[in-house]
Model the fold of this input.
Amino acid sequence: MKALILTFGLLFTSLLFSQEITTENKKYYVDGIHVYKHEIKTVLAANPAALNLFNKAKRKETWGGVLIGSGIALCVADAVKGAVSNETYPSAMTYIGVGLVAVSIPIMSGKNKMRTNSIELYNNGLEPKEKTLGYNFNMNFITNQNGIGLNITF
Done:
């Protein structure tokens, strides 16, 4: 049972670390395969700093969208209320709506840069794909509670 869990764990982590993310036309591609926004979090899970930055950008997008939607809804509701009743049109609802839209602009302003930085942070953490024996040969002695070992990377 331990061997089975270890095998799946090593297989999952080796697949997780070997994927490079690219962005084209606001779409994410992992090794040339299109991946949706909600699935990109599983790929970024290998790098907690990149995942944290990506989640922060997502939160900025969510709160900015809520504020801009609420502001537009308040402006439209006040315009409809002014059209069907005898009240003056630009009331407090319109001003509050315009204020919410104005507040949402700085909130949403940095989300694309944060997303780009999270993808770059993840890609920079990957090991180089092309390794050759002559240039990237590395040999280390490893010790732990189980004994002494030899680690050769090429």
Q: What stands out?
A: The helical segments are 2-17, 37-44, 48-84, 92-108, 111-124. Strands lie at 21-24, 27-30, 33-35, 138-144, 147-153. Residues 48-84 form the longest helix (37 residues).
